[in-house]
Design goal:
4 helices; single chain; alpha+beta
Length: 162
């Protein structure tokens, strides 16, 4: 089954492999940390499966109720906020160039709107601001971010009802 689906327990080995493939500015997070995002808001976490049903991309997001984003490498507990925090989007080399990232972002934004969330926040790393700006995310200049995100990280926000 090709396409977007909810994350299943059996997907985590593939998610960890994708994470280690795509991140070079920050150290990959632990399985425990990543799973905490899913455990907090499973309805906001998806994978994209290839023709064999193997995940080749994922997006992890969760509800958040603070104006300042969470740090990397910390587990998330249940939060009933009105903000969607997109924690991680990663597309494997096999999935590159197929608009899979775009599809995953659209899916999580639609899910967040269905959940009644009002705003979206993320930290752009590895010079990805251009990608996120295509979805109407705007840079928040001057926001002090955790050093865990790396030197060129940028907070970005978007209203879900634009």
């Amino acid at each position: 089954m090709i396409g977007i689906s909810s994350i299943e327990t059996s997907d985590w080995e593939d998610i960890l492999a994708i994470q280690s493939q795509v991140y070079f500015d920050v150290e990959p997070e632990s399985l425990e940390t990543l799973r905490s995002k899913w455990n907090t808001s499973p309805e906001l976490c998806f994978v994209f499966r290839d023709e064999k049903g193997v995940p080749i991309a994922y997006i992890l997001a969760h509800q958040w109720n603070e104006s300042h984003p969470p740090s990397l490498y910390t587990s998330t507990t249940k939060n009933e906020g009105t903000v969607l925090f997109i924690h991680d989007l990663a597309v494997s080399k096999r999935g590159s160039g197929r608009s899979i990232g775009k599809q995953l972002v659209q899916a999580v934004l639609q899910a967040a709107t269905s959940c009644g969330l009002r705003e979206t926040m993320l930290i752009s790393i590895q010079n990805s601001q251009g990608f996120w700006s295509r979805f109407e995310f705007k840079c928040v200049v001057g926001e002090q971010l955790s050093a865990t995100y790396g030197e060129h990280a940028m907070l970005m926000r978007r209203d879900l009802h634009e």
